[in-house]
TrEMBL record:
Example of a GO MF term: uroporphyrin-III C-methyltransferase activity
GO terms of biological process kind: methylation
InterPro entries, per database record: 4pyrrol_Mease, 4pyrrol_Methylase_sf, 4pyrrole_Mease_sub1, 4pyrrole_Mease_sub2, CobA/CysG_C, Siro_Cobalamin_biosynth, Uropor_MeTrfase_CS
Residue span, Tetrapyrrole methylase domain: 9-217
Upper taxonomic lineage: Bacteria, Bacillati, Bacillota, Bacilli, Bacillales
Protein name per UniProt: uroporphyrinogen-III C-methyltransferase
CDD domains the UniProt entry points to: SUMT (cd11642)
Family annotation (Pfam families): TP_methylase (PF00590)
Keywords of this entry: Methyltransferase, Porphyrin biosynthesis, S-adenosyl-L-methionine, Transferase
Family membership: Belongs to the precorrin methyltransferase family.
EC number: 2.1.1.107
């Protein structure tokens, strides 16, 4: 039987933030990773699916700021691929949709490093699932355009609104900061004051939804005390009835589970399924990689937990 070459690097989509929406393939990659290079929007709990000796490296970029340049991320990924057997590059959403996948693929090919791309649920699909709507709808919207409101080096480019002009749906990634300008472009091209929904932190415990019209949505976002987090903007008739799905959620439980990691995973998943947020504190239970210890310590220190669960060790009979 021929030997199948195992990729050294997995470019993995972590999905929109809710751990329950991670694919089984992505989970398997994380579990066998020797090192994980992860983005800002990756839920930290997902890192805890890895082994205690896995190295965690934050290479995230927040909107309109840069934590690490893309060239530096590429160089680090190549360096780790030469050191470790399995490298996971963990990216929020789907790496193929505004995830700079081409840059990283090009770098890996240049250095003859085997790799595999693992897709994830993208923000537009996740957001619409929360609104109980479809991105397309028979008789309403037959097509959709994914675009971005943020461009390399902050260059200005007009929106492609061809789909909207044909009655379709427009999904704008990373466009909240430029929303007034973007909505002005839509108003100038289309007479109809189309429905708009902005979904912040889709599927996460701090999800927030604003519903309005092209003429009002920028003012609604500006009226917020602060931007709740990364947001995706959906324009088109598919979001005409989203108000029923935007009721305020109760304040979520934020729970610290103390115990051995493998014994706490199911408990944490149950908390997420119930609409809460959880992290496992196993710093005193297992010899963790120094990067894990540092990242967990900072995260736990900065989080205001509503409760703490101590998992008792199993007693051998």
């Amino acid at each position: 039987m021929s030997v199948i070459e195992t990729p050294q690097v997995y470019l993995v989509g972590a999905g929109p933030g809710n751990p329950l929406l991670l694919s089984k393939k992505a989970e398997r990659c994380i579990r066998r990773a020797d090192v994980i290079l992860y983005d800002q929007l990756v839920n930290p709990f997902l890192l805890q699916l890895s082994a205690p000796n896995t190295e965690w490296i934050h290479v995230g970029k927040t909107p309109y700021t840069t934590y690490m340049r893309q060239d530096d991320i590429n160089a680090l990924m190549i360096e780790k691929a030469r050191t470790y057997q399995t490298v996971v590059r963990l990216k929020g959403g789907d790496p193929a949709i505004f995830g700079r996948l081409a840059d990283e693929v090009e770098a890996l090919k240049k250095h003859h490093i085997t790799f595999e791309v693992v897709p994830g649920i993208t923000a537009a699909s996740a957001a619409m699932s929360q609104l109980q709507c479809g991105l397309t709808e028979r008789g309403i919207a037959r097509n959709i355009t994914f675009t971005t409101g943020h461009f390399k080096d902050d260059e200005e480019k007009p929106l492609d609104i061809t789909t909207l002009q044909q009655g379709g749906t427009l999904a704008i990634y990373m466009g909240v900061k430029r929303l007034p300008k973007l909505m002005k472009e839509v108003r100038e091209a289309i007479e109809d004051d189309l429905p708009v929904a902005v979904i912040f932190n889709a599927t996460c415990v701090d999800q927030q939804v604003l519903a309005g019209r092209v003429s009002t949505i920028a003012h609604q976002v500006a009226a917020l005390n602060e931007t709740p987090g990364p947001g995706i903007t959906i324009v088109g008739h598919v979001v005409r009835d989203v108000l029923a799905a935007t009721a305020n959620r109760p304040s979520p439980e934020r729970i610290c589970i103390v115990g051995e990691r493998s014994k706490c995973i199911d408990e944490a998943m149950a908390i997420y399924e119930a609409g809460g947020w959880a992290i496992i504190d196993d710093r005193n239970m297992t010899a963790l990689h120094p990067t894990q210890n540092k990242i967990l310590t900072q995260l736990i220190r900065e989080t205001s937990f509503t409760s703490r669960i101590v998992m008792k060790p199993e007693v051998e009979v």
